[in-house]
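FAQ: What does the model actually see?

It sees only this:
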Amino acid sequence: MKIILVLTGFVLLITFCVFSTSDMVQAKEVLGTGTAALLGGDLTDPEDDGAPDADEGYNAIFSANEEPGFGGGEHSFNVFDNLLGGGNAKWCCGRGGGIPEEGLHVTAEFEVAYVLTHFTVSSANDVPARDPTVWEIQGSNDGEDFTTIFSHDGDSLWDQRLQVVLFEAGDDFDEQTTGYRFFRHVTFNTASNPSGAYFQIGEIEYFGDENLTAVDPKAKLTTTWGSVKNAR
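And it is asked to produce this:
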C-alpha cells in the first residue's frame, strides 16, 4: 500500500511539473534599465538618427488607434524615439473607462518584409499597475489581417521601471519563416484597467532579416537589420 501511495505521489509530482512548466511565463532576458540598455539600430531607425519631434529620419511609417504622434502628451509614437524616461519619452495613458476590445495598438510599417528575429519591450517610469499584462506582437503584410507572433497573458514581465527586456525567436517565440511589412504591439489588459490612467509602455525595438533567413539573435551581429550598442 505504501509503495502505491509513493508511486501515486510521484506521478502527481511529475504531472504538476509538466503542466506548471507549460504555463510558465516565457523565458526572457533583462538587458538593464534606462536608455543605455536599449540595443539600438533597430528596424525603425537603423542609424539611430530619428528626430521624433519632426517624425523624420525613421525607416518606418507609424500609426496607432490611440494618441498617434510623437511628444505632446505622451503619445504612442514615443515608443520608437530611442529614449526611456518620463514625459514624452513614453506612451501613456489612454482614455479612461477601459481598454477597447481591439486593444491599444501601435504599428510600424516598412517598405519591405522582415522576418522577426528578436525584439525588446521596455517598461515606462511610473505605476507598475499600468504595465501591459495581456499583450501581443503581431505581423501583417497588408496592414489589415495580423498574425500573432508573440503573446503574453499573465503578470507584468517587468520588475523595475524603465527596464529593457529582450525576446528572442526560438527561445521566447517560434522561429519565424514568414516576413512581414507591418509589426504592431497590442495591449489588451493591465492591472489598472479599467480605472483611470491604466496603461503605459516605454520603448519597442524590432530586429529582423530582410532575406527571409533566420539570424541567430544571440550573435547580435551588425547586419542590414541594425547594430548593437552594447557588447554583450
